[in-house]
Amino acid sequence: MIELERPREAGALLRDSLVVYRRHFWTFLALGALVVVPSELIVSGVGLEQLSSGYDDNPTFAEAAIPAVVSYLVVAPLITAICVYALQSVAAGGSPRAREALVRGFESFTPIFFAVLLAALGILLGAVLIVPGIYLFVRWYFVPQAVVLEQAHGASALRASWRLVEGAWWRTLGLIVLVNVVAVLFVFVLNAPFAAAADSADRALWALIGQIVGTSVVQPFGALYSTLLYYDLRQRRRSTDLP
Question: How far is CA 165 from CA 11, 34, 123, 216, 233, in A?
């Protein structure tokens, strides 16, 4: 059992995320894989022909950008929604209830997708000036949680995430960077043997398998971390709003 509604420092965020993830590793891995595998096979395997092509360690802009866009708009938000419901079940003293979390996550996907798409368009416009893009990315980082936990849709989800980060932008940025550094290191370690196999056999298929494995492992952990950070910020805002 884990308490959700409480503030956490960086170490506690990492520790509690890891504790929940490790205790229910196979469940969270399966939940991540159920989203990642079909997405990667369709986008990269079929669309970018990695199931049959040779290996190229210098992909074109399109080959790098298309999977990144799909990940941002579809894979990451959907896994986050699923993991939010699973985490709530764990916090209630039970198991992640994978089937229920999966069903409710997919039911939430449509409003999450449109809210994240709206945020992405704003970030893209802000990215022209670089700094505004980063600023907006942090302010709208919790749009999926706002949709799932606050039932906010569209622009309301953006406003909810915006309010949550108010007065804590730099801290939030630092904690986002922290988890992404950890994630990149894990993905690099997990992908390394598959990349070596792809290079040795000149088959992009091995690199695709490595990408599937790395993303399936790392994305659920990131979703748990970002959700605990959401609760951390919400609790801090409530405490400062008290008279």
Answer: 19, 31, 16, 28, 7
Query: Is residue 210 a contact partner of residue 23, using CB atoms and an 8 Å limit?
Result: no
Residue with tokens 């893009």: 133
Alpha helices in 41-168 (DSSP H): 61-70, 76-91, 98-107, 109-126, 131-139, 143-150, 155-165
In sequence order, which residues have a C-beta less than 8 Å from that of residue 190 and are 6 or more positions away?
210, 213, 214, 217, 218
Q: What is the pLDDT of residue 132?
A: 87
User: For residue 11, how many other CB atoms are within 10 A of its CB?
Assistant: 9
Cα angle at 28 between 23 and 34, to 5 degrees?
160
pLDDT in tens, 36-91: 999 999 999 999 989 989 988 788 888 888 999 999 999 999 999 999 999 999 99
Q: Which residue has the tokens 């605990």?
A: 228
Q: Is 243 exposed, middle or buried (0-12, 13-18, 19+ CB in 10 A)?
A: exposed
Among residues 101, 92, 94, 91, the alpha carbon closest in space to that of 28 is found at 101
**Short-list 213, 207, 203, 184, CA closest to 194:** 207
pTM: 0.93
Instruction: Using DSSP, state whether 154 is helix, strand or coil.
Output: coil
Rg of the chain over all Cα atoms, to the nearest angstrom: 18
Show the tokens assigned to 134. Answer: 């980063």
CA distance 21 to 59: 32
